[in-house]
Amino acid sequence: MPDSPTVTVLMPVRNGEATLARAITSVQAQTSSSWELLLVDDRSTDDTPRIAAEFAAADSRIRVHQTASPLGSRGLVAALDTGCREAAGRFIARLDADDECLPDRLARQVDLLERTPELGVVGCLVDFGGDPVAAAGYARHVAWTNSLLDHRSILLNRFVDSPLPHPSVMFRRDLAERLGAYRDGPFPEDHELWLRWIDAGVRFGKVPEVLLRWNDPPDRLSRTDPRYSIEATSRLRCRHLAIDLERRDERRPLWLWGSGRVTRRRFDTLVEHGISIAGFIDIDSDRIGQRSLGVPVVGPDRLPDPGDSFILSGVGVRGAREEIRTTLLASGRREGEDFLMMA
């Protein structure tokens, strides 16, 4: 292993025997040679330790570290934080044991970070490795993340969903040292990290090339862990929205596009931060002209004045978000200044 590799590829793994060799081989096939692969084994109970040890014995660039717990798994966040502390590279690239890097991934992301010192985190386009019919939701999510190509688009969409697939990112190691790495809590650890770093002024970018195959195993944490539920992500987004509104000293009344019960519940957390909804915008004729939670519901043809309102789009129906964005832009509002898209 080089004394100081440019990149540490951080791969947490637990019981990944079925795909681990394929993921490791994709790192070994990189066109860039200045890397180390740090495998953090979270107390696997299958053949993962043997596979990892064999690869490490044959390639000095591969290190294996076990999370420190005699009682079993400590969880993904503990494994990630262990990896961030142990990383030797100037940059840390994430990879999961069921995904695959394309050969130019590390070289292209390092090149972007070195050419653009103002960027702290870079992603790439990803190829969805699942069934686009059976897993249509994930396929749409991949297409959406692939449409966010620069800091502005990532910034404006950060409250919709996590704008970067976690295994696709590379970031400067010193960010984790200065701003803190992953946090454990009732929220998705990657989305929380992107929101927190954006709050701290970190700029994001993306290599506009497919450099990762993002596979879709049935036991993916985002399918099975309550930290990735709609309720958990909604609370996370609202907390960081409150931070954003406070930082910009937004004093205009807040209006929410969407007055249905599901949409309203997703924004309940705002009340805990002292933020109230002044009114709702809806297309449902049965709701327009009524009051919900004591405030008026108006139609899109009766939008409040831009100078006296800040609008949040809370409608998650596929296709509706773009229609709402188009309507708000046509009314003379500026995205990020007069309205934000959420989900």
Keywords summarizing the entry:
elongated, eight-stranded mixed beta sheet, Spore Coat Polysaccharide Biosynthesis Protein SpsA, Chain A, 343 residues, alpha/beta, Rossmann fold, 2 domains
N to C succession of SSEs: EHEHEHEEHEHHEHHEHHEHHEEEEHE
Assign an overall shape: elongated
Fourth-level CATH superfamily of the largest domain: Spore Coat Polysaccharide Biosynthesis Protein SpsA, Chain A
Structural domain tally: 2
Structural class: alpha/beta
The unreliable regions are: none
Please give the alpha-carbon distance between the first and last residues: 45 Å
User: The CATH topology of the largest domain, please?
Assistant: Spore Coat Polysaccharide Biosynthesis Protein SpsA, Chain A
Rg over alpha carbons: 22 Å
Write a structural description.
- It is a single chain.
- The protein has helices at 20-28, 48-58, 76-86, 105-115, 136-146, 151-156, 173-179, 189-199, 221-224, 230-247, 261-266, 269-272, 320-330, and strands at 7-13, 35-41, 62-66, 91-94, 100-101, 119-128, 170-172, 203-214, 254-257, 277-281, 291-292, 295-298, 310-313, 339-341.
- By secondary structure, it is an alpha/beta fold.
- The protein has two domains: 7-228, Spore Coat Polysaccharide Biosynthesis Protein SpsA, Chain A (Alpha-Beta Complex), CATH 3.90.550.10; 230-341, Rossmann fold (3-Layer(aba) Sandwich), CATH 3.40.50.
- Helix 13 links the parallel strand 13 (310-313) and strand 14.
- Helix 8 packs parallel to helix 10.
- The radius of gyration is 22 Å and the shape is elongated.
- The relative contact order is 0.10.
